[in-house]
Amino acid sequence: MRTIWTVAGASFKESVRDRVPYTMVVFAVLMIAASYLISELTAGQDLKIIKDLGLAAMSIFGLVIAVFIGIGLVSKEVERKSVFGLLTKPVTRAQFILGKYLGLVTTLAVNLTVMTVAYYAVLFYMDATATAGMKASWAAPALDPRQLIAIALIMGELAMVTAVALLFSTFSSPLLSALLTSGLWVAGHFNGDLRQFEQVVDQPVVAWIARALYYVLPNLAPFNVKAEVVYGVPVSAAHVGFTLLYALIYISALLVAAVAIFRRRDFK
Amino acid sequence: MSAAIETEGLTKDFSVGFWRPRPYRALDHLTLKVAAGEVFGFLGPNGAGKSTTLKLLMQLLYPTSGEARILGRPAGDSAVRQRIGFLAENPYYYDYLTAEELLAYFARLFGYRGAEVGTRVARVLDEVGIGKERRLRLRRFSKGMTQRVGLAQALLNEPEVLFLDEPMSGLDPLARRHVRDLILGLRAKGCTVFFSSHILSDAETLCSRVGVLVQGKLVASGKLSEILAFELQGWELVVACGPQLHADLATFARTVTPLGDGHVLLHLAPDAEPDRVVAELTRRGARLVSLNPVRETLEDYFVQVVGATAARDASGVGA
User: Fold this and answer.
1) How distant is the Cα of A125 from the closest Cα of chain B, in angstroms?
2) What is the ipTM score, two decimals?
3) Closest partner CB to A6 (pick from B86, B92, B105)
């Protein structure tokens, strides 16, 4: 376990110093701050816009960071041959994969924390400057702690996307890994439609394939509770618990597959 | 003496071609033993399979057949990795870590903790001649500096067996001298060194034994003293003399080559009695500049072996 954390620590250090994700975080923070200005232009919907834009910025920029660094986890290491130095040390290939994954998830958690602080700072300012009448018209309080549930689920989704990117990067090039991961992210958000597919097709084979895909592809829709928290609709603890448990099981399966592929791989 | 490195029928096939993949044999039944404490030079032209062999020994590649053992255990064994060092050809490390951070990271992977990490890192960086640059991020490093970092990481754990793939690549003459001295120092401490190189003069200086690999096959191996015919092949004599003597020089030598500034190079036969030739030329007004025996070099041997293999293969194809 110590070796895994050593690899994770170095991956974390390497990725937080990379300029691209750093720029993404700065950009996301700016967008969250700008949402305040945009809200000024709309009457009565100001808080909703800040929350919508802020949570969307965290989700989208988090995704870009996850894909960008996630694909670099293994495929760039293999392409640039930096993996040679590491795998000839007393490190197993499984330790390498798990360490890299933990390093990136830690990076994402730090980035998301920075964005959350910026988000709550804007909401705090909004709350402090709003009149009692304005506050009474809000669907949910500005500093509603339930928004942290939405952010926790964004983190769960990003951890899943990272595991998908990692799996692809164990056997394909960085570009292909990025394309495949982004494709799977889109598919993951429309996965629920596959379940309804059998009701609109006559061919049993097609219905069976759709059902199989529904179970195999990641189902990312349950991770999106942004609308609920913005409108103050309660999100049940059971939904959060089951969604995070699903993420844990899916990530474990992806990591087992990634290790199995990486273990037999030749590095030319 | 026990074998530090041992391979038995080690073979690696790659698949080439996208639509119709066909096997390409990069290494063909390599059987080799390197004794503990030896410096073994693994020589061969480009594409001969040297790097493939090193990657098989490091288990970065899995063999198609055959086996490799290091320090009596299967190659790739975690306990073996604790006792070996490896420098890849044209190494590349992490852009955003400094040399110090990279080595501290690797030191921790070897299990070192606390102050020992810093001590080891400082020692190896000093050994490879990296000074204040150790706090710069590696993306700023030149090829030669990266090569030095590669050497440093290979020495971190004071390895019993050191594998170096083209260690002199990208180094300036001073750094090459430094690395040569480093390897000689390791040899003196009893470290086994297995290195591949194109630079035959380095191999000649450093190795106790060499192997020559051509098209994936080991075509020759042995001690340098056995491989190289150390009998005299002739003499190289350089004299300074006036143009009036030039016509007479041909009677003493196989070939006569003017070098400019009144200097002339003479190639004498092995039995030419150079003392007598020098005395005679001095009597006629020439001045001795230098006199050197000519013996076969590793380069001569390499060219001869590689050429013979190519010729044999060509005749085989034609037959």
Assistant:
1) 37
2) 0.82
3) B105
